[in-house]
């Protein structure tokens, strides 16, 4: 296995910039997820690492060796990467064992040895009894396992996974998630996992690179992304976050907190230790952090716009009195009777001052 | 596990971005090949037409084209091509509507019969129809409708040419209109029904307008095929003294030999110009109006109600008239000793077949030459078009587009134009080998490769569009190089499409006459023109026997191909419903 470094990569497609000065360092044996909405450049990044595309500037390093730069480019067949494709890409004219053993055949491994290693790889994903089957006779989850085994049997330096669960139904997705996680624990392979599903990325990855508009927005551990988003994009994207404007940042009671004015009401929220005092900033909160306050003194005043019944709770849509242009919502239990036109008081349970917006 | 350091050169000196890898090399060879067989000959033709002596001489070109007989021939060509296209569009569209939307019985068999004329060499078709209307016609004789001896043959006329070209090209329109109708979902027709439209209103206000792209595409193919159809124009037009551009070019070579080449080049350019303008015009007409639909689902069925029986009867009567009538006449003629004899137990003989197969050396040689050329062309084109389709589908670029355009151009231009271009380009000795391939089989092979490349490419492009590119990407990351991927991944997956393309090329090359008619010599003769030579030499019965043998070969090929039908891409075999 290797460590992978992407250094200042820029890639244009027909004058459109799809990757813009992207740098990323993936450690040996690490499981990294590349997360972002469609069109953010994540698939291009995977194809660059695999060697299917060439960049306009920047370099890619495997263990400190340059394997790709605008001048020279090691072709995919020489990079020793493994890919699990979104549509599995199993060759329909070969059976499961032939699919898994193809890379070994190309490498000139003897047929006995090939058979042993193919079956080993299939055993890792509990598919050794399907060696003689045609891919067309397998279910979606089984194909996914074979694709994984094929990738594994080639003993690649790095495994690239391109939205491998996107074509599976919800049920299967949960069990495959566990499989991937086990698989990584057993093999300690360096894995780069492309996805647009944040819960998948959170569940699996050691670290997640959030991408948007061809740039890496933040590269951090899952809980850091959730609790300490570096910019507004991450704050909004992760966990359906909300971004609220705040004013008059003052030192908080403890280290790493500040006292801010949220729509006319002062609250304590978390912030970087070195957060400067400012006249205005933005904070990231999650929907569950907004709560109905018991008395008007505990929160900011707002006007209820409408109520949506959601079964386990009701969703209250409201506009803060200090910012009537802003439409927000919170979840309330059924025993709190509110209706459209009421004035309520909303408190912010937890928030984080977004450093880059400040 | 492979160590990255081992496969990477240690030095950091940047290698040149352009490497002469196997892919670049293959593409280069493809480009040279297409340039040699297609671009260079056609370029030479254009140059000869406008600058016969090396300097631009438009006045000279004009003096060739301004001759009254050229003008007449051009007008005749346009007239028969347009009129027969109209006939083909009507017949083909009705057949497509009937088979896609009508609930007629034995549909598959009817489709087979309707498309069959397309598979039969046009000169054989012409010969069969000529026999059908002869005084000894067995079928017409049965009804007492046979012609009186001595009367002018009704098919030796402009009307006869139009009639035969129309019937011959109707399947071409049928195939494109059928494809266009099949992609219309049933709910469009159901919505029209719910709005109160009857059968005819449905057809004329919804189905046909939405199929317009298919109709115009079919019309364009029919026009191009008609104006370049040497078999029918020569077999009927020469005896009728009805000159067209294509027969004029043929007679020019016969009368003056290669010395008349610059005149022939000018005529060929005129013919090409008409072809290209017609294609552009139909493309423009067919492309107007928005006909985008959500594809999928079964096409709507139109119940024929009490008209079912008459419509079915009419459909089968059409097949009887266009297939049985001519073919039975051809078969009958092939079984008698001398032309004009009535077929009966006392005149029945297999002499013609024995002569054609064993005694007539030139016929035997022609069969052998055609078979050899056809098999060679199929093998070469299978490999070439597999690789070319790979580049066209997955490695787009300016050079690839140019190669594809050149292939398409030498396919749509009339075969006789290609023949003239080949003579012009290959008349002089080749630079390395030192002799000219004019008059040998090699020039015919070159013309076949040029003419049929686009034909064998088509099913492969369809095949590539059906497989996902990631299958190749997966092989690349497994470490497979270009040729390994071609052998292990791409060829096995596209084998059915390669076979389909091979069959289509095989039948086209065996049937063709217009490409090789100018290129044959006493030492290199193909079977297609043989029938014209035999008929011109007065051996009608022998010509009929050769024609029947060719139809037999075609039917056998269709049968063999149909065995693979289940594994072929849909639409690869045109005669399958």
From TrEMBL, chain A:
Positions of the ABC transporter domain: 4-238
Membrane topology: Peripheral membrane protein
Keyword Cell inner membrane appears in the UniProt entry: yes
GO cellular component: ATP-binding cassette (ABC) transporter complex, substrate-binding subunit-containing
GO function term, MF aspect, one: ATP hydrolysis activity
Keyword vocabulary terms for this entry: ATP-binding, Cell inner membrane, Cell membrane, Membrane, Nucleotide-binding, Translocase, Transport
UniProt superkingdom: Bacteria
Coiled coil (residue ranges): none
Record flagged with keyword Nucleotide-binding: yes
Localization, UniProt: Cell inner membrane
Family membership: Belongs to the ABC transporter superfamily.
The protein's name in its UniProt record: Iron(III) transport system ATP-binding protein
Taxon lineage: Bacteria, Pseudomonadati, Pseudomonadota, Alphaproteobacteria, Hyphomicrobiales
TrEMBL record, chain B:
Record's subcellular location: Cell inner membrane; Cell membrane
Coiled-coil ranges per UniProt: none
Similarity remark: Belongs to the binding-protein-dependent transport system permease family.
A GO cellular component annotation in the UniProt record: plasma membrane
An example Gene Ontology biological process: transmembrane transport
UniProt keyword list: Cell inner membrane, Cell membrane, Membrane, Transmembrane, Transmembrane helix, Transport
PROSITE patterns named among the record's database cross-references: ABC_TM1
TM segment ranges: 20-40, 78-98, 110-134, 154-181, 265-285, 315-336, 367-393, 405-427, 433-455, 489-509, 541-565
Membrane topology: Multi-pass membrane protein
Name listed for the protein in its UniProt record: Iron(III) transport system permease protein
Cross-referenced Pfam families: BPD_transp_1
Main location: membrane
Family annotation (PANTHER family): INNER MEMBRANE ABC TRANSPORTER PERMEASE PROTEIN YDCV
Gene3D superfamilies cross-referenced by the UniProt entry: MetI-like
Annotated ranges, domain ABC transmembrane type-1: 74-282, 367-561
